[in-house]
Amino acid sequence: MARILGISGSPKADGNTAYSVRYALGLAKDRHETEYLSLSGLEIHPCVGCFACEKTGRCRFDDGMETVYAALRRCDAVVIGSPVYMGMVSGQLKSMMDRCVLLRPGYGRWMELAGKVGCGIACGWFRNGGQETTLQNIHTFLLQQSMRVVNDGGPYSHAGATIVAEAESDALGKETIEGLMRNLDTALGGKRTG
After folding, report:
1. In this structure, what DSSP letter does residue 191 have?
2. Residue from 100, 160, 163 nearest 135 by CA
3. I want to staple 89 with a disulfide (CB 3.0 to 4.6 A). Which of 64, 82, 125, 153 is the partner?
């Protein structure tokens, strides 16, 4: 049994992204331990590029990222969800990603997330409304952490799960989440079921 972390990168505590990430975790809870984390309400200072973390192993800012770091360190896989803002990830998620430079190589350390599995969910208001580029943002982050990336697979084979408008009523979008979680389970050593 693996531990899967779901991160909602939305500023809204109960919006479409939060729903989608929780839906994904719900699909995995029978086979894996799950944990949900919302960036909504967490104070995350933007990275200032000081690279103090490379010298000391700690960020100069003591804020909500301590919760994020701990959750990322204890998980085996991560599902990252973001709303589409101007064709990219939300500002909250981008700040989180930037601050994860702490988890990359530094003084006496190696890539802490290397080998873990990651995937993305993008929630936009229109079909083809920036979901693919948002997923590319998420994948770039995962790859820069030396993580393994999975997509939603067949029959749609997007870069990840894509949600349109109201997530709860987007049946096609929820199918992409289901495919994503099947592929994630396989990457974690589960038996392929479809």
Report:
1. P
2. 160
3. 82
Measured distance CA(59)–CA(54) in Å, rounded:
9
- Answer yes or no: is 194 within a domain: no
Q: Packing angle between helix 65-74 and helix 91-99, nearest 10 degrees?
A: 70
- The pTM of this model reads 0.95
Rounding to the nearest 10 degrees, give the CA dihedral for residues 149, 155, 158, 159. 0
Query: What is the DSSP secondary structure assignment for residue 135, as one 8-state letter?
Result: H
Contacts of 14 (CB under 8 A, 6+ apart): none
> CATH number for the domain including 136?
3.40.50.360
Residue with tokens 């700690």: 58
Report which secondary-structure segment, H or E, holds 142: helix 131-144
Q: What is the pLDDT of residues 19-47, one digit of tens each?
A: 999 999 999 999 999 999 999 999 999 99
What single DSSP character describes residue 80? Answer: E
Please state, in angstroms and rounded to a whole number, the distance separating the CA atoms of residues 3 and 6: 10
How do the residues of the chain divide into helix, strand and coil, expressed in percent and rounded to 5? 40, 20, 40
How many independent structural domains does the chain possess? Answer: 1
Q: Which domain holds residue 94?
A: 3-187
Q: Which stretches does DSSP call E strand in the chain?
A: 3-8, 33-38, 77-83, 117-124, 148-149, 161-164
